[in-house]
Amino acid sequence: MILCCGESLIDMLPRTASTGEQAFAPVAGGAVFNTAIALGRLGAPAGYFGGLSTDLFGAVLSDALTASRVDASLAVRSDRPTTLAFVTLTDGQAQYAFYDENTAGRMLTDADLPDLGRETEALFFGGISLVSEPAADTYAALCAQAGDRLVMVDPNIRPGFITDEARYRARLEAMLARADIVKISDEDMAWLGITPAALIEGGAALVLETRGAEGVLAVSAEGELIVPARKAEVVDTVGAGDTFNAGLLAGLWREGLLGREAVRGATLEALRPCVALGAQAAAVTVGRAGANPPWEDEL
Q1: Least C-beta-crowded within 10 Å: which of 15, 218, 230, 248?
Q2: Is the pLDDT of residue 14 over 70?
Q3: Closest CA to 223 of 275, 184, 268, 278
């Protein structure tokens, strides 16, 4: 199982009601949640670990995971509320107002850490779940306890959400040092003051720098290669990066490379089909509204 560890939330998206009144529509989301959904739809053995509420929004999230064939048995259930993100658009640019205090997702502690068992072969971390304590420290602790399992991290840094920069940097640096695979954007690298080569020197086996329409730069100790992006009529880019992450991990699973030593021993050419699957899946997602990853039979 590939266990996706991190946030799930409800995006409250602006809509106009049939009466003409302004309204909000609740949509299941969250970067790590989206990656889990995409993995399940691509046919890979996907699991989700995070805090899920027993409230009505938590039921929406749970039902979405089940519908996309994601095992949520390790998720921690509580009667705390679900995190809500109200979205407003100004000149087409999204702005978010988060309601995250004392939520089911944020209040995870070390006491909630799961027994991973032999069935968990890989762990994925990322998103805003690495910002807010105590859950962020809980995910960092789980990453440190990964043992010989494959670890992938996508920082997906949102500077506007960070309240304690020094603590966040220290946490993220420790997780990146443990990661076997890092997916990172140029904005993330600029904020961290780091390069793919530095991440490889720090211990990563594979670094993936996403470059939008220019494709993906894959870097290892062997060298680098470019995997081109798939052509697509872009509707929006919501969930594209999350879908890429899932496609890559699903590709490793399909190719028999879903393991720490397997990735570290693989050539870039052997990894190319995995990166290409990520690009292919992401191209489908950008071609339709919202985070709506493809199913396996759509590729």
Answers
A1: 15
A2: yes
A3: 268
pTM listed for this prediction: 0.95
Q: Which domains does the chain have, with CATH numbers?
A: 2-298 (3.40.1190.20)
pLDDT digits (tens, 9 = 90+) for 40-50: 999 999 999 99
- Give the C-alpha distances (Å, rounded to integers) separating 103 from 92, 134, 164, 180, 278: 29, 11, 19, 31, 32
Q: Are strands 9-16 and 216-220 parallel, antiparallel or unpaired?
A: unpaired
Paired tokens of 22: 């302004």
pLDDT at 108: 97
* Residue reference for tokens 């699903």: 250
CB 122 within 8 A of CB 151: yes
Contact yes or no for 57/32 (Cβ under 8 A):
no
